[in-house]
Amino acid sequence: MALNPSLDTQNGRQPCLEEYELLLHVSAQTEFVIESGGGYPGAGGSYYSRCGRIFLTGTRLVFVSDDHHSDGFEAFELPLLSLRSAKLVKRFVMKRRVISGSVEPTPNGGLVGVGSFRLTFHDGTAKEFFQTLREAMLFVLQFGVSSQQLEARREERPTEEKVPVLQAFIDPNDPFSIFVTDPTQTSPVMTG
Length: 192
Fold this sequence. Notes:
Layout (H helix, E strand, L loop, with lengths): L1 E2 L3 E2 L5 E2 L7 E14 L9 E12 L2 E6 L9 E5 L3 E8 L6 E7 L11 E7 L4 H18 L3 H10 L10 E5 L2 E8 L7 E3 L1
């Protein structure tokens, strides 16, 4: 987790995506609140709150504030591996849906202890966002993919010499027959 992660300002203030990272969902008009430290004044806790856009990638949630503020809070990043007990609730006041949960702190991440977060959706996309978030969290928990592992995968990626180039052709007389050429073989392989 990080306070003010790197943003891509050329594309309208969005998170800089890693090479193997996919953007799964974006919701505008979202209120983001995160706090830690037990909620007691003077206990050295952290509290951040803004309205903006929330980005969900395959490994993290990134909130980006709509406005620049003098306190320096513009964005916040939450790795999916650090999220705990996320749930979707419906507020009866103004009928807005809220996603809330807890988050484990990471070193130098901006929180002093276990924190709680809340996302209030003003654009009606909470249900779809939550479904995508739940699937991404299950995937990350099942396969244990973290940003450090993505970095390691980037270093291990094969060079162009190692990746064979395959081509596929469809038989015009039989559209259910596909011919795939493999540079390591001399004759095409038929699938279908």
